[in-house]
Every structure is written in structure tokens, then in C-alpha cells.
Specification:
Layout lengths: L1 H15 L3 E4 L4 H10 L4 E8 L2 E8 L2 E8 L4 E8 L6 H10 L4 E9 L6 E6 L9 E5 L4 E4 L1
């Protein structure tokens, strides 16, 4: 009985970690594209989620996240931006949308031809009151949560 309970606990612990895990290095195909796209990147940490590889790193004084498929094809990049780097129409729209203070702004670029957009996160009033808005560079709102 104790062995069954221990086995069940170990299995639950393993499953609760999910599919994402830290790895030391991505495949060579991915690394070659990464180094070409982001020369001089620092503090690179790779993770894998089923068939994609994600790097969290710093490049050109920005915190970035980039995702590739297992063949090295670039999928998307997320860049943490200073509020002072974001186009004025994005900030104006974000301020009209909510009276909360802007907390973070991220720039999203995707390989699928979708338009580049910004995600604006507002300061939370309570731990469960996350508010975000997705905005194109011209100030057009894509969606809000």
C-alpha cells in the first residue's frame, strides 16, 4: 500500500511539471538561426515545449523571448519595451482604455505574416485583476482582457 501511494505521488509530481522543461542547449539548427538573428545575446536560457524551443535572453538592452520550431524556423519574438519606446498612438489608446497605471509593454512579432502588435499590461489592484490590451502600432485595439 505504501509503495502504491509513493508511486502515485511520484507520478503526480512528474505530471504536474507539465511538458515544459529547462534544457541546456537547443538543436544546432535552432542555435544557428538564433545566433544569426540575435548576435551578442546574453543570459540565454532555453526551454522546450513538445516541438518548439524558446529562448529567454537579453539583446540590445531588452528582455526577449523567441520561439523556434525544431527545424530552426523562427515562429515569434516577444520583446519587453520601455514605455518611452512604444509608439505614441499605442500609449494614447492604452491610457484611454483604462485609468490604471501601465505596468509592462511587450512587442510581439510573428512569422505567420500577422501584424506586429503591442500588449499593454496594467498594474493589478488585486492579485486576480489582470488587465491587458493588444494594440497595433497605429493605436487600433485588437482585443482586451
Amino acid at each position: 500500500m505504501k509503495k502504491m501511494l509513493l508511486l502515485a505521488l511520484v507520478t503526480m509530481a512528474f505530471l504536474s511539471t507539465g511538458c515544459k522543461y529547462r534544457i541546456v542547449q537547443a538543436p544546432n539548427e535552432v542555435l544557428q538561426i538564433f545566433v544569426t538573428m540575435f548576435p551578442g545575446a546574453t543570459d540565454v536560457e532555453w526551454s522546450r515545449q513538445i516541438s518548439t524551443f524558446t529562448a529567454d535572453f537579453y539583446h540590445d538592452q531588452h528582455e526577449k523571448y523567441v520561439q523556434f520550431d525544431s527545424t530552426g524556423t523562427w515562429l515569434r519574438t516577444k520583446t519587453r519595451m520601455s514605455i518611452y519606446e512604444v509608439p505614441v498612438p499605442v500609449i494614447e489608446t492604452a491610457r484611454k482604455y483604462s485609468n490604471r497605471k501601465i505596468d509592462d509593454v511587450y512587442l510581439f512579432e510573428q512569422s505567420n505574416g500577422a501584424a506586429t502588435y503591442y500588449m499593454v499590461e496594467y498594474k493589478q489592484e488585486t492579485p486576480f485583476s489582470t488587465k491587458q490590451i493588444y494594440i497595433l502600432a497605429d493605436g487600433t485595439v485588437l482585443s482586451a482582457l
